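User: Can you help me understand a structure? I only have the sequence.
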Amino acid sequence: MERKVALITGGSRGIGKKVAEEFAKHGYDLVINYVSDNTNLEELENDFKSLGAKALFVKTDVTNFEDCSNMVNKAIEEYGRIDVLVNNAGITKDSLLIRMKEEDFDKVININLKGTFNVTKNVVPFMIKQKEGKIINISSVVGVVGNAGQANYSASKAGIIGFTKTLAKELASRNIRVNAVAPGFIQTDMTSVLKDSVKENINNQIPLKRMGTAEEVANVVYFLADDVSSYITGQVINVDGGMVM
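Assistant: Let's start by predicting it. Here is the structure, written out as tokens:
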């Protein structure tokens, strides 16, 4: 059988890497973009190889449409197909609106939202040709309810939700399902540096009384890509311990 292929943006670290590992465990080969020349590609390749997966790494700035086109074309040249797209690349530049710099607003929108458009726009024609595909966009609970100090990030993640629902309607007739995952507070390198008192305050806002793990997000992403979720499209699944209901 021909192995399936998952393209995961931001798949070299954090939640994206856990998502990539989850697909590797289930027999997928991978396409991963990276931005920094300091990315340890050999270590990543060995990690994925140990899970039985081949990984193609392509240096790609998701804000650059031509870069995204190049990445997708290289993936097709290498594998001949893209079965799953996970739009995970994203950044934060937090500040209250009154202090927020225009460039910080633009950068977050360009990477998080425009980057999602750029990659998806280049992948969809191949999925249409294949007559099937799954797209999972990583949003956030702050895209659902907002959060003080994150006007740019909240706007980008809310935009991803609207983008997801529209694409789900446009592509359903082509046998392409499009869904979003909205994580809440997840244990990452960013949250690990928080003071214990801050973590405790966060946990008190969550009915399950703890932060989630990157693996728990990855499990839901894979569920949405798998055939067991074949009747789910246009949905946003919160992975947040019940923080937003």
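Now, to help you interpret it: The longest strand covers residues 176-183. The mean pLDDT is 96. Let me know which part you'd like to focus on.
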